[in-house]
Amino acid sequence: MGPRRNSLRYLNRFLSVREAASLLSSRLDPEETKEILLFLTDKKYHELFFSGAKIPFREITRFIRGRKKGIPLAYLTGEKVFMGFRFRVDPSVLIPRPETELLAEKALLLAREKNLTDLLDIGTGSGCIALSLAASFPQLRITATDISGKALRTAKKNLKAFPSLTGRVRFIRADLFPPKSYGSFDMIVSNPPYVPDKEWKDLDPEVRREPGIALLAGPRGMDSIERIARKAPSRLKKGAYFLLEIGYNQKNRAEAVLKKNGFKIEEILRDFKGISRIMVSRWPD
Ligand SMILES: C[S@@+](CC[C@H](N)C(=O)[O-])C[C@H]1O[C@@H](n2cnc3c(N)ncnc32)[C@H](O)[C@@H]1O
Question: Are strands 85-88 and 79-82 parallel, antiparallel or unpaired?
Answer without folding.
Answer: antiparallel
